[in-house]
Design goal:
The structure is a homotetramer. The two termini of chain A are about 30 Å apart. In chain A, the strands form six sheets. A five-stranded antiparallel β-sheet of chain A has the order 1-2-3-7-4. Chain A has one domain: 4-Layer Sandwich (Chorismate synthase, AroC fold), CATH 3.60.150. Chain A is of the alpha+beta class. Chain A contains nine helices and 18 strands. Chain A is globular, with a radius of gyration of 21 Å. In chain A, β14 and β15 form a beta hairpin. In chain A, α1 packs across α4, α1 packs across α9 and α7 runs antiparallel to α9. The model of chain A has no long low-confidence stretch (mean pLDDT about 95). Chains in contact: A-B, A-C, A-D, B-C, B-D, C-D. The interface between C and D is large, with 108 and 109 residues. β11 of chain C pairs antiparallel with β11 of chain D.
Amino acid sequence: MGNTFGHLLRLTTFGESHGAGIGLVLDGCPARLPLTEEEIQVELDRRRPGQSALVTPRQEADRARILAGVFEGNTLGSPIHVFVANQDQRSRDYSDLKDLYRPSHADFTYEKKYGIRDHRGGGRASARETIARVAAGVVARKVLATAGGIEIVAYVRQVHAVRAAAIDVSVVHRDQVEANAVRCPDPEAAARMIAVIEEARDQRDSVGGIIEFVARGVPVGLGEPVFSKLDAELGRALLSIPATKGVEFGEGFGAVALFGSEHNDAFRKDATGAVITETNRSGGIQGGISNGQPIVGRVAFKPTATIGKSQKTVDRRGQEVEMAARGRHDPCVLPRAVPIVEAMIALTLADHLLLQRARG
Amino acid sequence: MGNTFGHLLRLTTFGESHGAGIGLVLDGCPARLPLTEEEIQVELDRRRPGQSALVTPRQEADRARILAGVFEGNTLGSPIHVFVANQDQRSRDYSDLKDLYRPSHADFTYEKKYGIRDHRGGGRASARETIARVAAGVVARKVLATAGGIEIVAYVRQVHAVRAAAIDVSVVHRDQVEANAVRCPDPEAAARMIAVIEEARDQRDSVGGIIEFVARGVPVGLGEPVFSKLDAELGRALLSIPATKGVEFGEGFGAVALFGSEHNDAFRKDATGAVITETNRSGGIQGGISNGQPIVGRVAFKPTATIGKSQKTVDRRGQEVEMAARGRHDPCVLPRAVPIVEAMIALTLADHLLLQRARG
Amino acid sequence: MGNTFGHLLRLTTFGESHGAGIGLVLDGCPARLPLTEEEIQVELDRRRPGQSALVTPRQEADRARILAGVFEGNTLGSPIHVFVANQDQRSRDYSDLKDLYRPSHADFTYEKKYGIRDHRGGGRASARETIARVAAGVVARKVLATAGGIEIVAYVRQVHAVRAAAIDVSVVHRDQVEANAVRCPDPEAAARMIAVIEEARDQRDSVGGIIEFVARGVPVGLGEPVFSKLDAELGRALLSIPATKGVEFGEGFGAVALFGSEHNDAFRKDATGAVITETNRSGGIQGGISNGQPIVGRVAFKPTATIGKSQKTVDRRGQEVEMAARGRHDPCVLPRAVPIVEAMIALTLADHLLLQRARG
Amino acid sequence: MGNTFGHLLRLTTFGESHGAGIGLVLDGCPARLPLTEEEIQVELDRRRPGQSALVTPRQEADRARILAGVFEGNTLGSPIHVFVANQDQRSRDYSDLKDLYRPSHADFTYEKKYGIRDHRGGGRASARETIARVAAGVVARKVLATAGGIEIVAYVRQVHAVRAAAIDVSVVHRDQVEANAVRCPDPEAAARMIAVIEEARDQRDSVGGIIEFVARGVPVGLGEPVFSKLDAELGRALLSIPATKGVEFGEGFGAVALFGSEHNDAFRKDATGAVITETNRSGGIQGGISNGQPIVGRVAFKPTATIGKSQKTVDRRGQEVEMAARGRHDPCVLPRAVPIVEAMIALTLADHLLLQRARG
């Protein structure tokens, strides 16, 4: 249980970090959408290790192969299967961790839940699992493209204490995000974020941060009250990403400081006569349904649990021990998490687009 | 779609705010649990309007009747049906709103999504819908009771700018929460919160806030990676509550300011030899699975959208108009939202308890 | 678990035979369909006891009330709730059965599964549960009507050894079915069926039979391979009706006697140029997907388990005893099962219509 | 949609007949069950082409590889992924069929449903899809083994007009089934069935038949009324197998000829004091719940649609043409369908075993 996501566009993922590979099955994708391995690869390359000095130097090629559901370059309507073989699996990096419970990792909880764990690099709890999400997100964007110009852009808004200036969500573009290694569209803040991450790395420590996202062009009417409201579903999608600790929409936790008269988004007509809101403090969702304004929110990521500093923990026999991670790890997961956040949003929106279409 | 929640313990809710009533069907509840209407009533009374000067003065008796699934005081294993008839339905309060889109309400999005709306008080988007959640939460607690002493306590942590002192989540008790009308266990902060709410009411405005929650005694092992992680599922549950704008676990957004070496929860043994964590910055969930520590988090609520102050909006014909709500509304939803938050947590945990039991 | 049916059009039913009533929640019904209690009542009256000398003389008014999801005569898109209060509940008829396991009833299995049972007339295992299916079927037909002239007609094809002549499924009409109490469109066979049922009744015994069904006008393309093929889903729907023991499509079990060259349905063009099949031995479904031909099949019903004749059984203490039912029971369930079969087909087809629409 | 089966033990399958391969993901399998590729291979070999003169001479090695979810020979509790690469893909056999709609195949319906089809051998509609079911069935049997000695045996009961003598379902064993190429435990009937199949093959025609199955040792209490009754779920499972046209339980369609007094299964005590039934006309399921008696039923398979005889059909441009299949096909699918039937039963029972366990 738990490895399938979505109502009509159903993503099932599988694979351990040091097993044969990571894969996905995406059922419910409409037929006749063009899809190539190259398109998937572009996004996987945004997620993969080794892409910059800020992230883990592990070299993982992460080549996506489409093994089912696509025929002569088009989706068939049958389940799409993508597989990414594992390659650079230095299981030996983990052999000395095999009996330890790494602090704030899933070693302990997996072992207690399942009575067994794959100690090689986290097994299923590894962030390698998100490869499948990113690959599926590419297909989800194809589904969204059938509804016109829906654009999803995520970016790093904050790293540790460094917060970027307010980003104009109505225009922020992937080019600005990809312009630097930390994926922050504010170049000045980006430079400082990079410095913070490098210092944390040099200290054998780690830092967290906040990813902000916007989805523009989402049609009015997506979301299924009362339990599958669009924000509830996006929230679940985002909180299922490893290392996330919180999610908010629109003004989010900041809404608490406003009076209703300040927070409400007044309706008005635009030049075309369409009903729009003057402000967008709701973040594009009202009553759990998209209102046509940009969907905006933020996700909090904790500092990476794996650090080179010495820490106290216990082993499987209950002995208290000291440990320090020796593997190659990310001092900050945020730059690589940007495409994951985008993928989960794309999957959720595409699923709800199909749900709404079913209404006819 | 969207009116069912849960995998094995499945709650379906229905009912418009000014229709015949609000109801629920709860399928998957184990048999032979004692259940009475009185137990449900206790929680409904915590949620109902008119309970204090802080909330809407509408008088809604909200009497729960169990109409199926219980025989001679015990659950049968068949679907439990609870119905709460609507009574104080002053639809006339809404007749002048029938063609308006109230700002930051769901009027506009419902009408665009469904092509029709029940304008009498919000219809399905009304907070009356949460009656069903609270009633079902009582049954969920019965399910949790079969696993020993799981305790769920929620309380108001912040109203507008007034933030309670840190609450000791290991001991906070419902009695402290119920000790004042605002449901904040810090009596000094409670007094100030009440003042803030009363002032907002007098200004015909509204305020939001933060509800904090703790679930103690949750067994290790609940949560279904990778998409139905316990935090992801709790997040969805809580973000499906009306007026919520964010949710966080453990340190939440505050984790961003910490280094990994500060945030990680070191494992150690307790006096009984059990593995515990020295700190609980993770909020009781690691890798999406409960680790036996208290599950802790917070939910942000926006200020109530309905305010007596005049606001700009448009009507169904696209005319720009001014409006001011005349009905009886809550200047702050948080005191009444406390039992709703607890109910959604209970439903989520009970569902995952059953899922984990299936593993045998 | 188990009380919800459907993917997008989701029916949840509840209620014990001698509890407060029988009800349903139907989620996912598109908005703006006209719906009245009277329309539902028409179908309930076809199902209800006491309608003829062939069925149980119990008088159950079974008045349907729509309590949610409909506003000013139209569906809202929110969950539709229909409730039918129980009235003629002679629980005393069952008091002497309270410790017995009636042969071929669900008394024994319910008690072993749930550890408890509602002994008053079968509780949830009673055929009264099907009231909810019939009511929901009326709504499902409204959904089907949005796709043009889909017609579903079921009728009694066989009672005990009396088999009607071949019925022309391309034209058989409800008027012919309703023309006699046994609901068989072959009047001559109907007369003999009635005689057989009356004789079984007089002998305090019971008989079974076969209901045949046809759905005409179903668009090409409904059904979701590979596990939710249209025949698989219809099969599940029909086998979930009490007292069913088998289901078949097209030639069904009779296909076994044919060679492939005899059984295959050759394709050809009709006068309009559309691709049709020359024969319809497949029963309108190929590869699990509707092919535009009439969907045809049959359901086998066992003889009613409740009989007035003396039978051997054991009681809850394991004592072997003799028993004879004293209540008012149907000597043959088939006449009343016709609307139930139609309802389950309508629900399945409407669900798959929505699923196919989601493809856009 | 449609490629996932099960509630808690969730099988998702994928792969086209002439794509890269056929695969499955099985989520929800409990951890710590031993599982090897060899065990899966044993069952795949029972299903594979080329195993006898009765089936298609295509040589497909169908080697199963476990690529996820198993670590050091044991299941991890994470999704199990098995992949079977396609090898003997003579797509050229199909190139001349690329624009034809083969009679009683899914070519026409797939193309109309999805607007595209993989014409190479049926794509997703090919019986190769059942490889995944058979492989998953091996895992399901492991789950069942945790509940003691549940045995599932299926066998060919009838081919065309040749019907085996009554088989004693309380003892029939796989050895008897595997004793001949047609998989009928009645050796005398088997010989005649073989002759019938060989003659059909020589005539370039095909034949259908009936597979009977028994599941012994199933605990009392499996099945989830009212829509997921055990027989309804088994029915769906079996009717999702290609070429099936009907399914029945216990006396099935034969129950129609019996009076209630003849059909009812009287309860009595056995030597150990357990409640059993004197007869088993219900086929081990009462009220949709297993009663501890052997679960017995039958599945009807139509004659193979692909035949070498000339047939009339139309092509994609609507031209009426004659066609005769040239590929290598099964004159009778039943011998190879036996392990598929067993697999679908195992998957269904294992799923319901977990559902019942969740009740605690």
